[in-house]
Amino acid sequence: MKQVRRREVIRPGTTVEQMVRAIADMIVTGAILPGEKLDEGSLAARFDVSRTPVREALRELGAMGLVAREPNRSAVVTNVTEAYLHSMFEAMAELEAICARLAAERMTVDERRALELDHRASMALVHQGADEDYSAYNTEFHTRLYRGAHNEHILEMVTQTRARLAPFRRAQFRLPGRLTKSYEEHGQIVTAIMRADGAAAGQAAYSHVEIVSDASAVFAKANEK
């Protein structure tokens, strides 16, 4: 009788991406503290998956700078300092400013219209206080800016930087009043782009990321205590 090889299966609804998001959010919000070990077996049991996707999730978390791992040892949660977080956001602000400026100069009429319509529609999420849905929309909004710059090299750089900051950018929406402020900041960027004002769009995007940096620093400070 031919032996059937066991397949490594992730249960429906649980992907490596979802595990990375869940673990990253726990690290950023302090549910898992710096120095704590992330055991593969425990995580596999928690998410009801095999160790294979857990290893991949830990690898991605390592690339994001949230965990460190030495050969033949458990992964350990790192301490993301306020200074290091600020340095990443500083780079992000510069990249986003470039994208917004180029988007204002290069976006097609259809791209501008779609950006404006989606921005207006997001007000419903603000009114509902739907922070998770708004966070997902926020990612789409910024992706439109990156693609609207019509520069593949810049798109690659900004996407990689955003991936490392993603947990902190999501965490900002846990703060009171942040949804409304984010919507207003987006509005300034959209207005500048609709007017094809590259300088204003770049400045609005830079200021937006600076504000996000200040909001997200709250979580880094909490983890440093």
UniProtKB/TrEMBL annotation:
Q: InterPro entries from the entry? A: GntR_C (IPR011711), TF_FadR/GntR_C (IPR008920), Tscrpt_reg_HTH_GntR (IPR000524), WH-like_DNA-bd_sf (IPR036388), WH_DNA-bd_sf (IPR036390)
What GO terms are given for molecular function? DNA binding; DNA-binding transcription factor activity
Domain named HTH gntR-type: which ranges? Answer: 13-80
What are the alphabetically sorted keywords of the record?
Answer: DNA-binding, Transcription, Transcription regulation
The protein's matches in SUPFAM superfamilies, at most eight in alphabetical order, are given as: GntR ligand-binding domain-like (SSF48008), Winged helix' DNA-binding domain (SSF46785)
Which Pfam family, giving just one, matches this sequence?
Answer: FCD
List the PANTHER family hit by this protein, alphabetically.
TRANSCRIPTIONAL REGULATOR, GNTR FAMILY, TRANSCRIPTIONAL REGULATORY PROTEIN
Protein name, as recorded: DNA-binding transcriptional regulator, GntR family
Q: Which organism is it from?
A: Xaviernesmea oryzae
